Structure formats: structure tokens, C-alpha cells
Amino acid sequence: MAFPNQHWLRLLPKNAMIKAGWYFNLYLESPESSYQETGAIRQAETGPPKKRPLMDMFRILSVILSIGYLNLVWHTACRSCRQISEEISMKNEITVQKLLEPFETYQEGYEAISRKVDAGRLVPIKSSGSNGKFPPLYQRYRLPAGRRKRDLENLEQILAGLPIYFDPQWYRRHPAQLEKDALGIEKLVEYLESDPDHTLAVSENERSFQIWKREKFFNESGRRILKNFGVDPSFLNTYETIEPVTYFAAINKPSWILISENLDPFVTCRKILAAGNQSGILVYGSGKKILRSMQDLLESEAPFLKESLGAIYYLGDIDWQGIQIYESLAARYPQVSVRLFIPGYEAMIEKARQIGFEQMPPTKEGQKPVAGSEFFHQFQDGSQKAMRELLEKGLYIPQEILLRPDYERILADEF
User: Fold this and answer.
1) What is the domain count for the chain?
2) 56, 312, 333, 378 - which has most CB atoms within 10 Å?
């Protein structure tokens, strides 16, 4: 049972287990080897060698263990090779969760990923399966060969296009964050290249939509991006809107009442009225809260307010929720005539058309389509069609698309 030579051991890892097994095998073989070398003398002195079944069994067991360990080493090496191959492959892959991280809503992320796939900037790994959401995405994507290098070159070009007072060093030290913020930075560069006029202060949400086509982006990411470039966000000349307390200013004649779904447009219109350019009553609807707070207007004891209840207008986002709020408000309070502020909505549609309907933000999550018959029938056919097509594509027009000059013109023409 002795092995012919010991050179095969050099093929195995030099660990303690192999050495121990080998030395044990040598120990078992040494009596027999000694007998072979001096067989004639030993046989003459003691007679034929005695059979040693226990030693033979240990030798067989030692060989079996050695073969088993060799098999284990082989499979371990193969598994390690597979793991290394998979790791190399995974370096070029991105999970859908990672791709969705920079986006506020799933719909927005889905559209951005779909655009990259259509442009050949991402390749879906179909074997990874669906993520189980609607609309569906694949679990993993990979970058095309050489794509990452080209993307980094494109990001460097974006940084090169920044104004001189932007310091790009922070992003050069944090390339991963640069990749996440690339779209926001690109839109900021495009906006600044248009040489915008910041002499007139606007609300943060209104400026945010003006730059990024998302009214909440400034407070979510825009402010941080500017600080990363060492730029004070105040250079955009914006003001913060604070939730107003409930109040109304006395006027000496019946007027109109305009309910604004959102805070920033309410504050903008309030500034116009405070300047003495218009006379009217503004109500901050605060989304769905107006469905209950409207009762406070109906119970008011102020004569001018009661007389003004005959002309109540509503203006909000052109999305499913805004439509639902208006229809619920009109149905709940039939004793007054709540009408849509059509000039405001028409101005929103026209401005969205000028910017490009495809640039409008995706509808916020959780909104469900409604029939909207009471809402849509107040518009001309062309406006109805434009709004329906936009909403069916999962997009909407926020109220913040209008700025102070827009409201000054609309209010002057209408009232």
C-alpha cells in the first residue's frame, strides 16, 4: 500500500491537515519498508512476516481520506473560480433598486430607466426576472462594453460647462454622487445657460419647476447640489413659503374668491393683492383640507364675504387628485357655485405646451384615474384633449408652472 513517491504532495496546499495525514501514512508504512530492505535477515531470524490486518485497514483509510480531500480541494477551487467570474461579471451590473434611488417616485424612475434602455445606455438582464411592480422593470441591468468610461467622460463635460463661480472639486472627489446627481446638474446647467433673469423673487417651488420641471426638487436635492458646488442657493432669488394662519382682510365691496390648492401660488397671488393691484379674497385650499374648511367660509358673518360667495373659483394641479378635489368640493357644497378658474388652467396648459408636454413631471404615486366629467366639460375640446392625453401618459401639470407675471396678467384680465 506504500505510495511509489512523494512528489504528488507538491500539487496540494501545504496545510497542516495534509501534512498530518502524510506523516501518519509514513508512520504506518515504516515497519513494512524496513522489512523490505532487510527481508532476508528478518525472515532468517524470525521467520515469515506476520499479517497485520489493523495496519492494513489504517492504510486503506488513509488513502480514502487523501482521495476525499483531493476531491474537496478540487471542488473548492472550481467554486472559487466561479465566484471570481461572477464577481467580475457583477461589477458591470446594477440592481434596479440602485437605479431607482435618485428618483422621487417609481414612475419617474421607470421612465428614466426606459429612456436609457432605448438609447442603448443600459441593457436589461432578462434572466434576472421582473421586479413585480407595474409598470415592470428587470431586477438587474448592465452597462454596455465601454459605457462606464463614456459616461464618466460625459459627466466631466457637464462639470466643464458650469459657470466659473461653481467649484466642481467636491464632485470630483465623490464620483459616485456625481453619477446620482448628473441629471439634476445637467438641467441646472441648461437653465443657467439660458441667462435667466433673477431680479424678481419667486417661491422655491416655482423656481424649482422652472429649472428642473419638478416643483419639489429644490428642497429635495437642488439646494444640496448647489452647496456641493460651493454656491449659496440664495442666488436663485427665492423665498420660502410658510403655512399661513387662517385670516381674511376686510374689503368694502363684494368681490371674487379664488381657492388655490397649493401654497406657493397662494402666496404669489397674495403678494399681488397686497401691492394693491387687485381686489379679491384668496383661500389656501391645502389639498383635500378645503373639503372641510369650506364650511368655515359658508358660516362667516362678514357681509362682504357672504356676498362674494356667488363667485368662487378653484385652481389646482392638473392631475387626478386636483380633478377629484374640485368635483368633491362642488358636490359637497351645492348651495354655492364653485367654478373652475378657466383662465388659470388655460395658462397652465399653454405654458406646458411651450415647454413641451413630455417635459412635465410624472403623476405622483397613489393617484387613481377618475372620470372627471364635471371637470372636463368646462373646457374647450382642444384643452380637454390635451389634458386627457397628458394624464393618460402618467404626467401632470403642477400649479407652480405659473409665476407672478402670469398671475398678474391673468387676474388683471379676468377681474
Assistant:
1) 4
2) 312
Q: Is 152 contained in some domain?
A: yes
One-letter amino acid at 376 equals F
What DSSP string runs through 305-371? Answer: HHHHTTSEEEE--BSHHHHHHHHHHHHH-TTS-EEE-HHHHHHHHHHHHHH-GGGSPBPPTT-----
Is residue 250 one of the residues assigned to a domain? Answer: no
Q: What is the pLDDT of residues 191-236, one digit of tens each?
A: 988 888 888 899 999 999 999 988 989 999 999 999 999 999 999 9
Nearest residue to 345 (alpha-carbon basis) of 313, 391, 312, 310? 313
Last residue of a domain, one of 90, 124, 155: 90
Q: Residue 312's CB: how many other CB atoms inside 10 A?
A: 22
Summarised one tens digit per residue, pLDDT across range 160-182 is 878 888 999 999 898 888 888 88
C-alpha 24/C-alpha 213 separation (Å) is 77
Please count the other Cβ atoms lying within 10 Å of the Cβ belonging to residue 118: 9
Its domain, for residue 85, covers 7-90
Q: Are residues 133 and 275 in the same domain?
A: no
DSSP letter, residue 206 = H
Q: Are residues 309 and 404 in the same domain?
A: yes
Question: 79-102, pLDDT tens digit by residue?
Answer: 655 554 454 445 568 888 888 876
pLDDT band per the 50, 70, 90 thresholds, residue 4: very low
User: Grid coordinates in use for 166?
Assistant: 461653481
Mean residue pLDDT of the chain comes to 78
Assess whether 110 and 75 both reside in one domain.
no
Query: Quick check: helix, strand or coil at residue 203?
Result: strand
Peptide bond into 244 cis (omega under 30): no
**pTM to 2 decimal places:** 0.60
Whether residue 248 lies inside any domain: the answer is no
